[in-house]
Structures are given as C-alpha cells and as structure tokens.
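Predict both folds.
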Amino acid sequence: MFGPRTVKYHIYQKSHRFIRRQQRVYRQNEIWRDISTKGQDSVVLHSERLYQNDVVVKYDVEEHRVE
C-alpha cells in the first residue's frame, strides 16, 4: 500500500526565550519543520514555521533565564 519514504522530517524550535511583561513571565518560541531528502548527503527541500508560542509560564523559571 505505501512505498518507502523518499523524504525525512525534522521538527525543532527557534527563537526560544523567557520574557517578563506586567509582572508575569512568558515563554516565546517558534516550532519549525524541515523536509529533507533521505541519505547521507541530504538536502533541505522545504522549511516552514508550524507554530509560534507566546504564553504565560505556570512554573518557576530561574531569574537569570528571563530577559
């Protein structure tokens, strides 16, 4: 039914940071997906941003990590 895949996927985050706004800490980042050819000399065929976060953090963050 399905043949072998000819591409591979890589999911990762970019631009991760914690910031403070109005006495609250927020986490910001972007989730990206690269689609590449398979094999030793793979080539990225397409990159796309899947999601962008800007959310209130509900857990303690060490102060030196907050911008």
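Second protein follows, with its predicted structure tokens after the sequence.
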Amino acid sequence: MHHTHDVPVVKVAVLTLSDSRSEAEDKSGQTIQSLLEEHHQVVRYKLIADDADKLHETVTEWAQAVDIDAIITNGGTGLSKRDITVQTVYPLLDKEMKGFGELFRVKSYEQIGAKALLSNALAGVRENTAIFCLPGSKNAVTFAMEAFILPILSHLAGELRK
C-alpha cells in the first residue's frame, strides 16, 4: 500500500568500508546498487578504508546533501579492531531505528545460526536522511535489502520529508 507522502524514487548513497576490496571487487556494494536501481536512484557511491575519520566525514557530508534521502553502508560492522562502522555512525544519529539490529540478527540466526551474533547492524536518522549500516557480506546485504530496507524505503523517505 502506498501512502500519499511516500517518495516514489528515493535518492540513495552507497558507502562500502573495506581495507581489502577495490571498487571492482566490491560485490556487496554492487549488490546494494543493483537492488536499488530497480525502483530508486543511486546518487553516490564510494569505497573507503575502515577509517573512523573518513567514515565520520562522509556520513556527515552526505546527511547534509539535499540530493540524498538515504545512506546505506556495508562493511565494518563485525567485532574486529578494524570494524568501526557502528561505533562511528551511532553518535551521529539524531534518532535510532530501535530494533533494526536486533531483528536483523534474529532473522540472520534463522539462516546462519550462532554466527549471526558476530555482526552488528544499525539504522537511524541524521537530519532528514535515513542511515542503514549493514555487514559486508553479499548474503547479508541482499537479505537486509530485501527483507527490511526496500519494503520501507519509500515510506521512510516520505516520513522524513514531513
């Protein structure tokens, strides 16, 4: 069901965090983009190293951009020392989408078992921009996009424009 304030084409920025992948090897970032392009528009794409300062700078800049409704990051959500996405983005949020990470882990547990506990996911809002932080595996981003993000993206963007 579409509500009158839903945004039919959401403008999305995709950010991959990886110390080991190049843009050509970024299957997760490519997957996010291809899933979005069916109904929405990818207006930015960037691959950066797992660097808190670069991540902070990019998310802050993109959240202020008038042509970006949502930011989707992938990578850097695990438990290693280099995984800094959730810890860096969380303080930038004006509001957290409570339950996103928990629901992601519960549904992931149904597919991959206890390994679901080794990864984090985060969603929230900064300014009028939705932000989703996903794990870096292709399976995880495909699952999160299809199960959670794509079904609500148009409505969420409309809510944030009110």
